[in-house]
Amino acid sequence: MKALTVQQPWAWAIMHGGKNIENRTQLWKYRGPLAIHAGKRWSERGGNDDRVLSAFIADQVRTGLEPKYADMLRSGLLEEDLGDWYGAILGTIELVDVHPAAGCCRPWGESAYFEHGGRERRRIAHLVLENARPLAEPIPCKGALGLWTPPIGLITKLESAK
């Protein structure tokens, strides 16, 4: 099993909001189970993304809560409410394909984007994700850049949580 660190609220969107494409700048050969690790940094771009906001509101309605938190998400106030959802494994998912962006994989697939700091990324790879399995409770864990291998004890915990 491999792991991928993703900033919030993108990590939430993968595990709970139906985000089935992760946009990256590298094509990987790996396919298989992938632990989604929420990094310790908030993505303002993600907090302002209409797709994330729509998924968040739909989740709030589905769980019986008022959809009043969208403005909080947009302003980054929910950043604090996600508490344990930073620096932790949120669940697992299957990485089933990786391919260059070609105007495909809408609505989550992108062909270019501006990352934190204003750098534009144009050569985008789509990581195609299926079968999200969120954990009942996040597991605190230190993340890493790129595709990384979790400690064996963590892999055992994740496999037993299936």
Describe the secondary structure blueprint for this structure:
Layout lengths: L1 E7 L1 H7 L4 E4 L7 E11 L1 H4 L2 H13 L7 H6 L2 H4 L6 E13 L12 E2 L5 E2 L3 E16 L6 E2 L3 H9 L2
Question: Can you walk through the features of this model?
Answer:
- It is built from six helices and eight strands; from the N terminus they run E-H-E-E-H-H-H-H-E-E-E-E-E-H.
- The chain is α+β, with helices and mostly antiparallel strands.
- The strands form two sheets. It has a six-stranded mixed beta sheet with strand order 2-7-4-3-1-8. Strands 5-6 form a two-stranded antiparallel ribbon.
- Strand 5 and strand 6 form a beta hairpin.
- The longest helix is centred in the middle third of the chain and has 13 residues, at 50-62.
- It starts with a strand and ends with a helix.
- The relative contact order is 0.26.
- This is ASCH domain-containing protein.
Low-confidence stretches: none
* Gyration radius, rounded: 15 Å
Order of helices and strands: EHEEHHHHEEEEEH
Distance between the termini: 13 Å
Order of strands, main sheet, comes to 2-7-4-3-1-8
Beta content comes to 35-45%
- Characterize the largest beta sheet: strand count, sense, and whether it forms a barrel: 6 strands, mixed
Give a count of the beta strands, DSSP E runs of length 2 or more. 8
The dominant shape is globular
Q: Helicity, in percent?
A: 25-40%
* Tally of alpha and pi helices: 6
Secondary-structure content class: alpha+beta
Mean pLDDT: 86
